[in-house]
Structures are given as C-alpha cells and as structure tokens.
Amino acid sequence: MTTKTEINVPLLDLKPQYESLQNELDAAVKEVVQSQYFILGPKVETFEAEVAGYCGCAEAVGVSSGTDALVVAMMALGIGPGDEVITSPYTFFGTVGSIVRLGATPVFVDIDPATFNLDAAHVEAAITEKTRVIAPVHLFGQTADMIPLQRIAREHHLVIIEDAAQAIGAQYDGKMAGSLGHVGCFSFFPTKNLGCFGDGGMLVTDDAVLAQKAKSLRNHGMEPKYYHERVGGNFRLDALQAAVLSVKLPHLDHWQSARQANAENYYKLFAENDLTRPLAALETGLEGGVVLPKVAPKRKHVFNQFVIYTERRDELLQYLRTNQVGCEIYYPLSLHMQECFRNLGYAEGDFPHAERAAAMSLALPIYPDLTAEMQARVVEVIKTFFRD
To answer: Do residues 190 and 198 make contact, with C-beta atoms less than 8 angstroms apart?
Structure first.
C-alpha cells in the first residue's frame, strides 16, 4: 500500500552538497593531480593542522579510515594480547574488530537506552587487573557521558580512546568530541557529517609522543625513511582526500546546524501527529508511536543519524521503503551476538538495552539538504503505518 502525495525521500543525498562546492572541490582535486603528490605531504599536513585546531587538540594524525585510526591509536599505546578494552556492544563492527585484531580482549558494558551510548554507571564493575583502555563510542553524533568516565580512568590509571567516528563537532560540556580522552578517532567515510570521496580517518591528541608514534606506525613504522624501529602498517591518508576535506571543513558547522534544525522539526512534527512516546514506554509498549532521540545534558548533538525506537520495526522499514522513504537499521545484531565474537563467552540477555536497540531502532533521513516537505512526508508515512 502507498500513501498519497508521492515524494521520494532518500536516507542520504550527497549530490546537493557536492554541487554547492563543486568549483572548489574540483579545483582542489585538480591541484593534487597536477602536483602528482598523492601520499601524505603538504595537503595532509594542512588538513591535520585544521582538524587539530577545530577540535582544540595539539596534534592530529591523518590515517586511512576511522577503523585504522582506532588500530593506530591502540598500537601507539601498546595495546595487545593480555589487555582488556571496555567498550560498547552496540556500535559499528570496526570499534571491536580493531581491539580483536591487535590480540586484546573487548569487555562489553551495556548502553544507556536514552542515548545509545556506553552506560558509565556500569563501567567500573567491568574493570579487572587486565583493563588498559575505556573506549566509549559517541554514537549517532552525541558524546558518551564523559565526566564519570574521566573520573574512572583517572582513579584506575586507564586510557580513554574516544571512538568519535560519527561525532566530529559534537560537544560535551563545551569541549569537542575527540578532545575528551587521551586520544580521539574520527572517520571521514562519505556518509559522515564531514565526508571525503572515499575512505579517510584521523586521530587527535594532546600527547606529542603518541602522535609521533602514530605518524610512524601509519607508514610501516618508518622513522626515518627505510629505518624501522617498530612494525606498523600502511594506514596513510591520501592527499586527494585531505584536499577534499580541507574544502569541506569550513562548512561543517553550518551543516551541523541544518541537521539540528531538521531534528527540531522532527520533534515538532511527531508531537503534532501524536506519535511521540516517552522512553519509559519501551517497557510498557509504544502503542502506535515512537521514542525520539534524546539530547542529554551538557551535549551538543550533531545528528549523524536520527534514530528512533519503534515497535514492528522491520515492518515499518519495509513500509517506508515501499513508500519511497529511505531508512536504515544501525545495527541489527549487537556485537556480543556476532558469530565471530562467540569465543568471548557472552550470551543473549547479557546486555538487554543493546539487544533492544538492535531490535527496535531505525534511522530516518536527517541530512542537511532534507527539506521540510520531505520531513513531513516521512512523518505522514509513519503515521499512516500505525493508523492502518
């Protein structure tokens, strides 16, 4: 069944952004091509300085992806076999895959259902003599609750690695994501709020020694050329991607504001259509409504995704797509339930909030160029689904 007023609403449309900056972007790419300087070099160094300044950090190191930013950060800190890293079971695979690839052990703590982020209240109980790192994930564009995590890290002599892949520009108590721990890791995958023309990543830190190790590790541990004090890998950020990102970075705050305005419009539309339900309704039943994303105290949420809780999630997803409304599930299976992590010994029911998020969450379009008419269409289709 389809509803009236057929409007195609994609989950994400990057073409308007490119078209608005086409001359600058094309010129930046052409400059790199003409220089024939593609690997690291001045374009990467310029962008690193720009990101460090934007985040309020002393150092930034460009790498090949957000996942590789996590890998390099942990390699620089010497994380490996016998070490434990406390993190979330509800996140993109790269968060936990990076830990396992280095031979360390992920230790999961359930999420706060209001924010989808690591629940700081349960972290201390998960610490053992093997714990080296707390790795909170700033999921969907909102930071984790960092003050208690910072206290726990200080008291237990642990390092905080922020997985800020989805949260560049997000803030906690006035401080930028990435600057809230010992090292922060970003992704510039094209769908991110600041996206390049392929894969790219960055780590930021105030630790000059760690930054220098990271620069060596991203280039096979070379320092100087052809001399290897350590074993690294090929984790370099391309000059082409850095040039593209340098063009886009000055526009990031404007794009974030547009996302926030779209979120506010969703809150208004869902309320007007009597579709908004409180978080507590997750326990008692949503009765034909949805739970909207919560912006927690002290936070600036940049809405990389706009994720709702909804009953009959899979049916609603198909109904939206049938009616030409884009949507996506992030993420359909909590990581402690993934086949490749069965050896960790977790079972269904161990992290009920993460499991419920995996079963009930659905991302709606939120990109900066989304129009008010498109948003009205999204809410209209959802209302029709629940009323039919």
So the answer is: yes
How many CA atoms does the CB half-sphere of 115 hold within 13 Å?
26
CA atoms of 69 and 92, how far apart (whole Å): 14
Q: Would you say 59 and 211 are in contact if contact means Cβ atoms under 8 Å apart?
A: yes
What are φ and ψ of residue 81, in 5° steps? Answer: -55, 135
- The predicted pLDDT at position 5 comes to 53
* Token pair for 326: 């884009």
Using the predicted structure, report yes or no on whether residue 2 has a pLDDT greater than 50.
no
Q: Give the count of beta carbons closer than 10 Å to the beta carbon of residue 280.
A: 9
Residue 326's identity, in one-letter code, is G
Query: What are the tokens at 71?
Result: 């890998």
% of the chain beyond a pLDDT of 90: 97
Domains of the chain and any CATH numbers: 16-109+116-249 (3.40.640.10), 252-387 (3.90.1150.10)
Task: List, in sequence order, the alpha helices (H) in the chain.
Answer: 15-20, 22-35, 42-55, 66-76, 93-101, 146-156, 208-217, 239-248, 252-272, 281-284, 313-322, 352-360, 372-387
What whole-number distance in Å separates Cα of residue 296 and Cα of residue 141? 12
CA separation for the pair 213, 225 (Å, rounded) = 14
Strand 306-310 versus strand 290-291 pairing type = antiparallel
Its pTM stands at 0.95
CA distance 185 to 80: 18
> How many angstroms separate the CA atoms of 366 and 259, rounded?
6
Query: For the chain, what is the largest distance between any 2 Cα atoms, rounded to a whole number of angstroms?
Result: 68
CA distances for 225 relative to 37, 61, 118, 221, 331, angstroms: 17, 18, 41, 9, 42
pLDDT band at 21, cuts 50/70/90? very high
C-beta separation of 166 from 305 below 8 A: yes
Burial-class residue 77 by CB neighbours within 10 Å (0-12, 13-18, 19+). buried
Q: Which amino acid is at 382?
A: I
Pseudo-torsion of CA 290, 293, 67, 26, nearest 10°? 100
pLDDT tens-digit map of 315-335: 999 999 999 999 999 999 999
